[in-house]
Amino acid sequence: MLPFSALDGALLIDKPPGCTSHDVVDRVRRCFQLKKVGHCGTLDPAATGLLILLLGQATRLSDKFMAADKVYEGELKLGEATDSYDADGELTGSLPVPPITLDLLNAETAPFLGDQSQMPPMVSAVKIRGVPLYKMARKGLEVERQPRFIHIYNFRFTSYEEPLARFRLACTKGTYVRSVAHELGQKLGCGAHLTALRRLASGKFDVADAHPLATVITWDPATLTRNVIPFLKLKSYE
């Protein structure tokens, strides 16, 4: 094993909307001419918040950090369902929103807590026979998917002003929060889709310690080095 350099470690990015997680990796790699950069847990293009980048020899820790539990805050819109379960999809249904209160919303979250199986949405990066589901969805195809085992620790709405409701959710890796929004809309009888999502934490990493991508790409190499969490220090985050 090679000795660790100052750039073997983790860099915490506050991902902006409108780009993929891979776009962020590619931007940082090119900006600093790094050979090995990876990320720990994909965020949808519209989502923002904590994206952990692993640099150099730290990429070997990807599986460990990717397996960490996640915390999100988000917003959903009641009365409209989409094919992707979020605001980027095509509208598939629109119904009047019944009388709903914040207390009623929080009462409806109880069935979502704990262990459960969740079906990945068709518009997702899950691969079937090597082909991402979203590519099949673009062709109008619907294929059989295998449900995933997930666990939701906490799911609570913090505000509601029809038709928009804000929430906070803590879960295991692999949980599709937009699927939760879709399923809640079905239970309420009016449909719903995710309109905003922000990752607040992943394991012991917090978005409060992350740096906006727009700032990171203005750094010189010395500033980058100062902001990388060294490989040996990453043990305390496992």
What does this structure look like?
With 238 residues, the chain is an alpha+beta fold. The protein is built from 7 helices and 15 strands. It has helices at 21-32, 62-66, 102-108, 133-138, 177-188, 213-216, 221-227, and strands at 9-15, 37-39, 48-55, 70-78, 80-82, 91-94, 114-118, 127-128, 131-132, 148-161, 164-171, 192-202, 205-206, 211-212, 229-230. Strands 1, 2, 3, 4, 7, 10, 11, 12, 13, 14 and 15 form an 11-stranded mixed beta sheet that branches. The two termini are 21 Å apart. The model has no long low-confidence stretch (mean pLDDT 92).
Fraction of residues in helix: 10-25%
Q: CATH class of the largest domain, please? A: Alpha Beta
Please identify the structural class as seen in this structure. Answer: alpha+beta
Strand fraction equals 25-35%
Q: What is the number of beta strands?
A: 15
Outline type:
elongated
Give a short synopsis of this structure.
The protein has helices spanning 21-32, 62-66, 102-108, 133-138, 177-188, 213-216, 221-227; strands at residues 9-15, 37-39, 48-55, 70-78, 80-82, 91-94, 114-118, 127-128, 131-132, 148-161, 164-171, 192-202, 205-206, 211-212, 229-230. With 238 residues, it is an alpha+beta fold.
